[in-house]
Amino acid sequence: MHLKRPVNQFFTIFRAYMARLLIEHMAFKRIVSLLPTATEILFALGVGDNIVAVTHECDYPPEANSKTKILSTRIDPNKSSREIDSQVASMHAGGQSIYEIDGELLDSLQPDLIITQTQCKVCAVYFDEVKQTVEEMSSFARVVPLEANSTDDILSNIIHVGKLVGAEERAKKLVDGITKRIEQVRSATRRMPKVATCFIEWLDPIYLGGHWVPEMIEIAGGLQPIQQKWAPSIPRRWEQVLEARPEVLIIAPCSYKLDKTLRELPHLERSEGWENIPAVKNGRVFVADEGYFTRSGPRFIDGLEILASAIRPEIFGEGFMADKEILRVSRLAHQANWNFNKVS
Question: Which pTM value belongs to this model?
Answer without folding.
Answer: 0.88
